[in-house]
# Entry
Amino acid sequence: ARLGFDELAEAVAKGEPAAEIAKEAADVAILLNRLMGLMGRELAEEVDAKMAINRARKWVRNGDGTGRHV
# Structure
């Protein structure tokens, strides 16, 4: 069986319309929410915690619109 992420990556790589990519992204979000629920966790809380870590990091711009933490 293919994971939802594989389908999302394929849709992005093929340049599918935004509506199709959104459907695949929603599938991934559903899978992640279900996984966290099975683990007794809340995905939104985990995202908030991770964003707090990311905000505290020092970031370097790559010059192409992306960046990385140091």
Notes: Residues 18-38 form the longest helix (21 residues).
